[in-house]
Fold this sequence. Notes:
single chain; alpha/beta; Rossmann fold; 2 domains; 8-stranded mixed beta sheet; 15 helices; 15 strands; about 35% helix; elongated; catalytic activity; repeat; NLR-like; P-loop_NTPase
Amino acid sequence: MSNTPLHKSFSTTSTSRRCRIHRHDENHYTLGRIGKHNVVMAVLPSGEHGVAAAARVAKDMRHTFPNVRACLMVGIGGGAPSEDHDIRLGDVVVSTPSFHPESRNPGGVIQYDHARTMQAKRFQSMRYLSRPPDALLSAAPGIHIRHNRKGNTINRTIEEIFQQRPRMRREYSRGTRPRRSSDDDPTVHYGLIASADNFIENAEIRDLLAKELNVLCFEMEAAGLINNFPCIVKEVEILRQAVLDDNQKTVLERLPVAPQAAFISYADEHNPRCLPNTRVELLDEIMAQAGDPDAESVFWLNGMAGTGKCTISRSVADAPDQAGKLGASFFFKRGEEHRDNPSKLLTTMASQLATRRPAKMAQEQFEKLIRQPLLAGSPPGQSKRIIFLVDALDKCDVADRAKLVLRIFRSYQNLGLQLFITSRPEEPIRLRFVSIKSKYQDIILQEITQASIRRDLALYFRNELERISRD
């Protein structure tokens, strides 16, 4: 996340790939890649700054990207140079835990009350914020050591960007100031960052506060972000400087998928789920099956047209998706490109497991993209089951599609996977399930008890009448 659009201007990894934005998300994103990691970049709205603005951007980002594991806050800060830290314009400060005896801060960022602090000339109402993940804290010393031994390549990277985009040189280049020969230009510093809702304009007070806790940098957004995301904060001392990792030159490679076919809870907001307190017994049975390591690994929900199979599928997918147990899904739909045939079924399901084109046969795709990665990544004795959901198999316009899907997934029984399939009870599909005999469990929607149906209808009509009266 950045508090200025400058960093997006300098990004060399942005792609034309678009993402579906949650209806409650007002951010604008650029997608890219650093090494093997997918990256999403957002900026604070123009003219806004401070803790509240950063918290709002972070909260909105979680709606659209619930699987973000860590965050790097890149922004503008005011350096606090001292005898120990020769901080110059254009330098970088990375937040790391402070060992100052007064800071008592394990996370690298403190939040303070700006008005009371300015009046007292000492930090007031300090909050000690959540610490970053251990993976980030472990990486920071390694990078620090590498910079001490070999220097950084920031200036070289910026110069390469200026050569690629010469129009940016006039606005973003900066003046030079002699440094010691042993220093990089710019230099990366590691230490404590202080965050509040306003600038510190008085250099004397700034120096007093910096000395009190050995603070290297003062800024205005990190405190709003760090409790919403696990993150390390990287502050840039002047707007005319961009810092990019050398690995950011890798272009995002995407596995060909059918993006509309995958279950995305925010993308299909207009598609119905089961009304609360309806289909209770059915959903309980399905979820019990999904959580039982001894249950059959194939579950077939079948029913005639209009019996609610797709609605049930979305309801079934919601809870595992939120719990991180929905391994993959594919919703077939007749007449929509890539969703009415299985050519991208496995690559869609494996899009998080591999990034290669589906040039091989389906059996080899399953072996290389799903089975082998899952075997390699699953610890021995793992009891949690991962759900693979295939909705509306009858809308797949390929002969004997049930045979294709069931045959490919036959070898997954030792992976702890649960295959949930919905379809109409068409003869070819029904016969294929019959052929695997007792190796699956099924529910026929037409055979659900009348009492359960009447209760659900009563709840539905009551809910609709209440909605109409409110409108």
